[in-house]
Amino acid sequence: GQRQGQWPGAGGHWPGAGADRWAGIGLGQGWAGVTGRLVSAGCCPGIRVRARWRPAGSCPSPSSSSASSSRWSSPRPLAPRSWRRSTAAGSWSTRATGSGEPRQGRRGGGPGVRPGTQSPAEQLLIVRANSPLEYPAQGVEVRPLRTILIPGLSLQAASRKLYKVTLIATLGTFDVAAMVEGVKAQGEGETRLSLLATQLDNLNRQLQFVTYTNTLFHPNTADTVQFATDGHQASFTIRIRHAPTPKLYNPGTPGDDYNISALVTIATKTFLRYDKLRALIASIRRFYPTVTIIIADDSQHPEPVGGPHIEQYFMPFGKGWFAGRNLAISQVTTKYVLWVDDDFIFTPRTRVEKLVDVLEKTSLDLVGGGVREITGVTTTYQQKISVQMGGEEGDCLQTRQGYHHLLEGFPGCVVTDGVVNFFLARTAKVLEVGFDPRLSRVAHLEFFIDGLGVLHVGSCADVVVDHASKLKLPWQKSESEKQYAKFRYPTSGDSSVSVKHGLFYFKNHFKCMTSN
Amino acid sequence: GQRQGQWPGAGGHWPGAGADRWAGIGLGQGWAGVTGRLVSAGCCPGIRVRARWRPAGSCPSPSSSSASSSRWSSPRPLAPRSWRRSTAAGSWSTRATGSGEPRQGRRGGGPGVRPGTQSPAEQLLIVRANSPLEYPAQGVEVRPLRTILIPGLSLQAASRKLYKVTLIATLGTFDVAAMVEGVKAQGEGETRLSLLATQLDNLNRQLQFVTYTNTLFHPNTADTVQFATDGHQASFTIRIRHAPTPKLYNPGTPGDDYNISALVTIATKTFLRYDKLRALIASIRRFYPTVTIIIADDSQHPEPVGGPHIEQYFMPFGKGWFAGRNLAISQVTTKYVLWVDDDFIFTPRTRVEKLVDVLEKTSLDLVGGGVREITGVTTTYQQKISVQMGGEEGDCLQTRQGYHHLLEGFPGCVVTDGVVNFFLARTAKVLEVGFDPRLSRVAHLEFFIDGLGVLHVGSCADVVVDHASKLKLPWQKSESEKQYAKFRYPTSGDSSVSVKHGLFYFKNHFKCMTSN
């Protein structure tokens, strides 16, 4: 078996705390598998290798449900045995391929390929040693059907009678923007260009004028270019895509302080609680008399909530929580959106300017505040979220209370992955993630899970909103409160929890989850 | 001046038609500038270079408004002289940075950097020739705070007494997953790792076990790793990001034909035209009795439109066209959404199954159909859209009627950039683009412009919906039609056109547009 090795005198030590660090993606395979395979690969007979394995107490591997750690609870499977994620036609499909569509087929054909192939821009390309070829490994981009000069091409070969290089592409053609004396070009305007010269300097001067023109239309893809000379070959990628269209917002006229009405829209969803909603609005107006408030309302008997700078949207009865959130954000026309629940109360501590300052001065996309309960306890609900890849069966969702690190320059603020339901966010980023309208009742972290890799999230405990009291004994509740509770807190027989898990399983490809 | 050159005997020819192909991004600079600069750069005295310039009739350059072509109208400036896109604080800001946030600062600090810096994954990196270093130029990715094995590292150096390599990172640390006999490691678990050996084979075996662990949290960034040996250095990028969360949809139970009710939601926006809306719904129900229809309604005196599988959303009066479109799509829970105008009529030629087939079998994101007017003329409104970069002043939007190429496997279908207001689209992609709610009246191509690089668009002329007659003389119009026309067709004094141009100028960074 393998044991933990240590090189005498090297002062090596096992990487410190953070058991989860070893649960890497390892080129898509489990740790043990990759390292073991390499160790026993049979390469280089005579070289002795001592493998190091993950320390006891590391993350549960996707294949074992018994591995446990004092820091983690056992992974909880999300899907009952009866659920199956079929891969046949008709199953949940169309995994988001991200940018970079698969390569196109024949010239003049079109995108007739199956969705889901890896983009050429993501493929592993190894740079070979001791090659006379010089070329751009990264950073070359052309707009669809446009032309660019290819930077950085050069040949540094040993002395010979004739120097020759060839460039081959698939989605475009090569040409030369200028002709250098002493160089012969073959294939100008075609997918294969050769340059020949007897003097190396002339060839290299000519290589400064080579252009690439994208000819097979695609709005977002990449071409892998082969660059070769006698006995050597290299590949590099040219990205082919439109420049991302900027999503800019009018920040309003500059002044001494932030113009909250121009920069921020307050958004909320309401259901059956008009008294609380009106109390929220009144509290907002004490401090922000002209800020726009957007209300998504799926009450059964809707009441108009009037007033300047108030927009109320009426939805089918009981359409749902995330549907309402998605509706509200779809109507925001300002740079930032402040999400509040309809039973919050603004106080002098609810300084939206402070949250705006964080987003104006850092690259964070969303910053949460604190919600103060009647007991005096303030909740920031900071959650770290990560996904452990698990192959075909599904991945494992991991959530842990806490934060990653402090936010430099902002005392009282930290960086994390999920926060409480009181946050300011860049409108464009929230829209990019969206609130899944299939989540009708119990949902919160789903938004942040859908936002992994998209949202950079912070949390400031010193910007606080009050939560209208919930501590009422059942017989003290008003009729509307009882009605509300009936919908808001589904019984175990309600389908909304299994809908939630169904989405985790089928939509997000999770098969288990752990939290603490 | 420069003249068109041709190398004798080379058989070179000027690249064929398509004048616009030469208006490339040219590393962010105009064509003339780059080539001219290279030609006169003073490199390599004694080497003669004859530049080739763009042929007469090419695209207007951003700096000249007089260059014209028989295929193009002169670019029309979008902004009156009084508009100014200030770059000072308080101006329209936060250009979407796309993926890859700027590098973080000190350890334990946080993202305190200015938004908008180029990502390390986009930087130009040149591979130097004749280097003994072998490494991965592309394709290495790690999840935030996780660990991976770095593939492809090797040293192919000439014989010497001692071989040494060093790896340096900024956002993470290196370590070794196994120890190879005969190799000394310094800096395990740190940002700088050195490996030393007297035998090259041992060092290369060790390089197969080098790991990288991301330690500075960021949900989507990249680290540039320096890889060096005596006298040689190379850089490569490790992407650090969460895997994109898939957005999957339930396709319903498989059957002989596509289950349109499970796969498709029909969405529309209505305003003051309940008679037409009801006619539309009745026509849909002839062919699709159970498909969900979502209606965004901003009429002043809303009327409930009842019926099974109908969802009606009431908005503030006159909130607007794109606000209504954004609301409607925010409520879709199926894989595809079919957009229709409220005055369309479904006929037997309105085969939604055909459009679903296109999106199921290709990587297109959206496919438009045809709209048949009372005259019998069917409009597909296929538009090619491109943006010519123009530097600080702004870019130039170019739209041209037509398509890029045929869609292989689907006779009657083509690939283009913009289509008519009758289309089927992947819900997730439409949500990714969104309809800007600031466009209240006149807007159509804005959606496709915002979608450049995101949407891959097709058009099939043989899937046709009828357009309820518009050809009525003014005195024949009903009261509601007159009321509708008042809002729908703004007079020149109306602000909506300048709002549209204002958005083009400030939001999309366009300073001119051309079309034919």
Automatic annotation (TrEMBL), chains A, B:
Superkingdom: Eukaryota
Q: Which UniProt keywords apply?
A: Disulfide bond, Glycosyltransferase, Golgi apparatus, Membrane, Signal-anchor, Transferase, Transmembrane, Transmembrane helix
On whether Transmembrane is a keyword of this UniProt record, the answer is yes
- Please, one GO biological process term? lipid storage
Q: Where is this region: Disordered?
A: 54-119
Which Gene3D superfamilies does its entry note?
Spore Coat Polysaccharide Biosynthesis Protein SpsA, Chain A (3.90.550.10)
Q: Sorted alphabetically, which Pfam families does this protein's record hold?
A: Glycos_transf_2
* Residue ranges annotated for the Glycosyltransferase 2-like domain, each copy included: 266-387
Q: Which subcellular locations apply to this protein?
A: Golgi apparatus membrane
Keyword Glycoprotein recorded: no
Q: Which PANTHER family match?
A: BETA-1,4 N-ACETYLGALACTOSAMINYLTRANSFERASE 1 (PTHR15046:SF1), GLYCO_TRANS_2-LIKE DOMAIN-CONTAINING PROTEIN (PTHR15046)
> What family does the entry list?
Belongs to the glycosyltransferase 2 family.
Can you say what this protein is called? Beta-1,4-N-acetyl-galactosaminyltransferase 1
